[in-house]
Amino acid sequence: MTRDTQRPDPGPLLALNFGFARARVLGTAVELGVFTELAGGPRPAGTLASALGCDTVALTRLLDALADLGLVTGDDDSGRRLTALAEEYLVPGRPGHLGEHFTEVLEQWDNWGRLTDAVRTGVRGNRLGPPRERDLHPGMFAGAHPLAAPMAEAVVAELGLRPAGRVLDYTAGSGEWGIALAADPAAEVTAHDTPGLLAVARRHAVQAGVADRFAFVPGDFGPRQPFADGSFDTVVMAHAGRFAGPEETARMIAACARMLRDGGTFVYADIMRADPGGPPLPRAMLDLSLLVNTRHGGLRDPADCRTAMEQSGLLPKQTVTRGLVTALTGQRR
Asked: pTM (2 decimals)?
């Protein structure tokens, strides 16, 4: 008995082993529209099942599981209702909605099921490809705006990037970096990305009240540079390099450098490997995700990114890390 009581608690392992089921509960609730329906007010399970076209007994079990996860509360007497967490992030149309991003991540399900083969063989996934295919995955590249916007605002303030002058948000995504820079009334921001993502960036710029400072220019990230050399005072390339791979990233950095005026500022922001002594956070899991879901992607070392900047005629300057995001700046020589 003494030996049994001295063993470590296996609880964390049991929770880890069952983690896939929790993710699937969330995904099923999003797919069925549970959060959308409950946003209208409390409902007993039977009423909710009729509205969603579900089996009452099965939906009751799903609701009980959602209660375990802290997303639903109440009972069938008082009605099932959303918790504050679900109200904030899981109801479509709300400013904090993250459902599209969660759906995109859950669509990686089959690729993660091939992880064992990927580790044995080194054969990568190909679900997420080159930058021109960003429109195929809007939830991944523009679906996390409620999380990304405060981060971009904080980094812009810490780096002292305003006033930014003529700005190119080269990989605009949901528009968070251009919006943060457009807090300066004199800024002129050009948002560049694939057409579907630009529609998302435009919507967020309108909501932020800065759309009058924006131009929206669609592109495909092909070999042709979208703007003339020296066109901008500030160029931002955010959250693209880890998906694209080293060679494609270096090509895009070089294009951004050419579009800067002499003395202009380049901002490269992404989730990267931790600098020595920095907090690791869950970067290893994200790096593994890039193995199973991308053709060439992976987390980059900040030093490698600085080297790519130098090779493109940029003088590396500041480095700021907020949470998982590292922003590097460089000055056009």
From this structure: 0.93
